[in-house]
């Protein structure tokens, strides 16, 4: 958590208290102020078998923000999102969505949020249009079915039975239903999994358009480029904890850049210039990886050395830290740090 | 792809909140479509009850009904109402609940505005309506064409039947808890079917049973309902018996609802 987050969170009791007091009236203006739209403090989730999937995480999402929850499979993303969606009660900690407890005050929260589960369920024998119509009947202020299907590019498939849809089409139907009530807050659990490249780009564009219209989006993904290009802020989860968070730039800024190359036979890694000695070689001693916070200087030094010594560097590859680098690095270091 | 609406328009359209009836209607309509598209379910809901009632009629011919004060037709038609409830509501709904749960429909629905009880009730609507229509048909057929007496106490008949549909729907939810797949529903619904058919007096009225056995059987889930239906249609049971029957059915219903609230599974086991 950055100090910025903490500053926002400090204002919450005031905003939350005020809105909850007025929530008895039914419609409730909860979360309409400047406070965060989604907030979790010390959120824990333990399953009946005793397995702790989420071990006390804090997060805040401001209005109109796209927030990505990243992590490997089993990191606790879905377990977290299910609590935020109000599907499950947290085992510990405090959760507020639009100023309300999403589990106990679902009547106040549900009409204002849209949810897309990691694996959506629709009766396979219903047609696409019938499915949307059923959802529309259960959704306040629902868009017309045609408009919702148009949004996700499924209009041409409205007379097709759900069982005949491809995996990607099913994801898009799921997204259409999540958008049906023009939600203020959108929870998307791996929205682009199973989509082809074009479908993924369409989904990204749609999510950006929604943000432009003021929608707050919390999404989970294990596609790092998705988080990098879409998210205003993100948090990386690992084994039930948030191990890094901030803007994509902040998360990557702290990470070292990387230079990779292979040395030809007969050139020992020990001959590399002194400053690059920290480089790591693989078992053969041929493939070298250098991690550095001074990419330009070290790369220049390496190339000058190679020219001077007349060494050919095979597969030379230098890149500044990407989210992927950061992610792998975090996963690796927390791995070795032990549990 | 079209552009999402602007926020001012969003706010405006938000004033229209969904209502309980609207939500139940939407769920029920979708469920009706599914029922019509599922041949096996349609068979259990429409054809099987008629076949069973015809079968009961023949079976009862060979039984001495002396102790019950019922004619063969009266026993068939009143038992037939119980059979309709059992097949159309219980048997059908176990499959429906399990199918929706395994397809993750229930879990998906729970992310929306519908409440948990509404999901179960909405899913049950077509089966309940189909059952009630068939009960009405039994009464119409009996009174209009088979010279059976008109219901002595229509209110009691109606109340017993309605209580029966609620009880059967709730018990279907309970049975769904222990049913993993739609296929295994054929097995898990069997005990309920057997004990009701035999023990709740669908085929042979309980009055014909030996005393001790009869008083145990009176406590079975569907027994109270069948007694209420018989009392409402052809009369016979006195006030105390009617009260006991109503109480039995009510207790089973409350118990089932409690079990549902506590243990109903909304998503597949993993």
Automatic annotation (TrEMBL), chain A:
Q: Which InterPro entries match?
A: AAA+_ATPase (IPR003593), ABC_transporter-like_ATP-bd (IPR003439), ABC_transporter-like_CS (IPR017871), ABC_transporter_ATP-binding (IPR050763), P-loop_NTPase (IPR027417)
- Region Disordered: start-end pairs: 1-30
Q: Where in the cell is it found?
A: Cell membrane
Q: Could you tell me which species this protein originates from?
A: Streptomyces pyxinae
Q: Which SMART domains does the protein's record reference?
A: AAA
- Family assignment from sequence similarity: Belongs to the ABC transporter superfamily.
Membrane-topology descriptor: Peripheral membrane protein
Keywords, A to Z, come to:
Antibiotic resistance, ATP-binding, Nucleotide-binding, Transport
Q: Where does the record place the ABC transporter domain?
A: 38-264
Q: Where is the composition biased (Gly residues)?
A: 15-30
- Cite the source lineage: Bacteria, Bacillati, Actinomycetota, Actinomycetes, Kitasatosporales
| Entry protein name | ABC transporter ATP-binding protein
């Amino acid at each position: 958590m950055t100090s910025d987050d903490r500053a926002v969170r400090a204002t919450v009791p005031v905003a939350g208290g005020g809105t909850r007091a007025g929530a008895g009236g039914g419609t409730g203006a909860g979360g309409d102020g400047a406070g965060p739209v989604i907030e979790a403090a010390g959120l824990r989730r333990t399953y009946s078998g005793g397995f702790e999937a989420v071990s006390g995480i804090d997060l805040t999402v401001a209005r109109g923000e796209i927030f990505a929850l990243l992590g490997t499979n089993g990191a606790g993303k879905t377990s977290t999102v299910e609590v935020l969606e109000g599907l499950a009660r947290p085992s510990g900690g405090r959760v507020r969505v639009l100023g309300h407890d999403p589990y106990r005050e679902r009547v106040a929260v549900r009409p204002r949020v849209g949810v897309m589960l990691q694996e959506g369920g629709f009766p396979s024998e219903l047609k696409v249009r019938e499915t949307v119509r059923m959802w529309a009947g259960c959704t306040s202020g629902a868009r017309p079915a045609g408009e919702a299907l148009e949004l996700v590019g499924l209009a041409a498939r409205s007379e097709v039975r759900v069982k005949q849809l491809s995996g990607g089409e099913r994801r898009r139907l799921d997204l259409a239903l999540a958008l049906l009530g023009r939600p203020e807050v959108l929870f998307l659990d791996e929205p682009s999994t199973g989509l082809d490249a074009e479908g993924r780009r369409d989904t990204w564009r749609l999510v950006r358009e929604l943000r432009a219209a003021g929608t707050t989006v919390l999404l989970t993904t294990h596609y790092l480029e998705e988080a990098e290009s879409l998210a205003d802020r993100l948090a990386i989860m690992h084994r039930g904890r948030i191990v890094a968070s901030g803007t994509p730039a902040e998360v990557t800024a702290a990470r070292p850049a990387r230079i990779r190359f292979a040395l030809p036979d007969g050139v020992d890694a020990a001959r590399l210039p002194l400053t690059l000695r920290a480089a790591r070689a693989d078992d053969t001693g041929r493939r070298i990886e250098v991690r550095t916070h001074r990419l330009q200087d070290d790369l220049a030094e390496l190339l000058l050395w190679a020219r001077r010594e007349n060494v050919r560097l095979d597969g030379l590859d230098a890149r500044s830290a990407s989210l992927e680098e950061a992610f792998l690095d975090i996963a690796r270091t927390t791995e070795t740090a032990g549990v | 792809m079209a552009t999402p609406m602007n926020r001012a328009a969003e706010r405006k359209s938000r004033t229209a909140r969904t209502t309980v009836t609207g939500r139940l209607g939407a769920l029920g309509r979708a469920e009706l479509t599914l029922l019509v598209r599922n041949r096996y379910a349609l068979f259990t809901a429409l054809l099987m009850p008629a076949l069973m009632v015809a079968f009961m009629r023949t079976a009862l011919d060979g039984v001495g009904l002396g102790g019950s004060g019922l004619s063969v037709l009266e026993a068939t038609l009143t038992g037939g109402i119980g059979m309709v409830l059992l097949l159309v509501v219980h048997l059908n709904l176990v499959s429906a609940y399990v199918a929706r749960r395994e397809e993750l429909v229930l879990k998906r629905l729970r992310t929306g505005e519908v409440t948990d009880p509404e999901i179960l009730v909405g899913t049950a609507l077509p089966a309940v309506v189909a059952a009630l229509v068939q009960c009405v048909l039994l009464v119409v057929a009996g009174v209009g064409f088979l010279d059976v007496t008109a219901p002595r106490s229509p209110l009691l008949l109606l109340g017993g039947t309605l209580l029966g549909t609620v009880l059967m729907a709730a018990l279907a939810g309970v049975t769904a808890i222990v049913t993993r797949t739609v296929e295994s529903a054929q097995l898990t619904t069997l005990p309920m079917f057997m004990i009701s058919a035999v023990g709740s007096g669908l085929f042979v009225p309980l009055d014909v049973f030996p005393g001790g056995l009869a008083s145990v059987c009176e406590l079975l889930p569907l027994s109270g309902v069948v007694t209420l239906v018989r009392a409402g249609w052809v009369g016979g049971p006195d006030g105390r018996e009617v009260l006991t029957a109503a109480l039995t059915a009510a207790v089973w219903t409350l118990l089932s609802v409690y079990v549902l609230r506590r243990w109903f599974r909304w998503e597949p086991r993993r």
